[in-house]
Amino acid sequence: MGRHARFDREELLLAAAGEAAIGRPVTIQSLAVASGASVGSIYHRFESREEILGQAWLKAVRSFQSEFVPAVDGASTVRDGLQAALTVPRWSRDNPALAGLLASRRQEDILDESAPANLRREAAGINRLAIKVVATFADRVRRNELQCQTALIGMPYGAVRMFLPKAPPPAEIDDMIAAAYRAVMKVEA
After folding, report:
1. CA-CA distance, 176 to 93, in Å (whole number)?
2. Does the residue 142 lie in any domain?
3. For the segment 16-75, what is each residue's pLDDT rounded down to a tens digit?
4. Structural domain for 161, as ranges
5. For the chain, how many structural domains are there in total?
6. What is the rounded CA–CA span in Å between residue 38 and residue 42?
7. How far is CA 155 from the centre of its chain?
8. Residue 168, C-beta contacts closer than 8 angstroms, at least 6 positions apart
9. Most distant CA atoms of the chain, gap in Å
10. What's the mean pLDDT in 142-147?
11. Please, are residues 31 and 41 in contact by the beta-carbon 8 Å criterion?
């Protein structure tokens, strides 16, 4: 019977996300120090630094979308859409390393030509479903797509970026995001 792995891929991806979010150069050696894993253990799970960073970035996007997409898709009225907008600060508080990575690094920063081709392909289409559900929501509530993109993504994301990656967004920001959502969507409080 083999040994139980002391470090799993998810822990290493979170460590890489945290390091990258705060602007530290992520190397296999720095990841070993940050996570407590050995260099060999990291290389056993990942082929390269670029793979680790690409996987961490994709994990962050998938994690966020796992909450955001169902919230938008389940919103049947303009008022219901507010809960979808609030997934941005709530998810950010619950996932500070992943949120910090998304707030501090663009896809192009992480998944450039040095990243594995399979990760670049996945990243190329990763936002399609989110864009589609926002467009469907816009049709459902009879608002234009730009209005919905701004209310559901632009305003909440801009608000949390003021804090990330240094600190999670405070709970008080939710009321401000709600006020911005209502203003953009033209909903009375």
Report:
1. 16
2. yes
3. 998 888 888 888 998 888 888 888 888 888 888 899 999 999 999 999 999 999 999 999
4. 52-185
5. 1
6. 6
7. 15
8. 92, 93, 96, 99
9. 63
10. 97
11. no
CA dihedral over 145, 149, 150, 151, signed as positive or negative? positive
Residue whose token pair is 């891929």: 9
Cα separation, 62 vs 122, in Å, equals 11
Output the pTM of the full model.
0.89
Output the CA–CA distances (angstroms, integers) from residue 70 to 14, 47, 64, 96, 130, in the order listed.
23, 33, 11, 21, 9
- Rounded to 5 degrees, φ, ψ at 2 are -75, 165
108: in domain: yes
- Output the CA torsion 89→90→95→100 (10° steps): 0
Tokens 């296999």 found at: 28
Angle between helix axes 49-73 and 78-85 (nearest 10 degrees) is 160
Give every CB contact of residue 27 below 8 A, 6+ residues apart in sequence: 49
Q: Render pLDDT for 99-135 as a digit per residue (tens, 0 to 9).
A: 999 999 889 988 889 999 999 999 999 999 999 999 9
**Residue 27 domain flag:** no
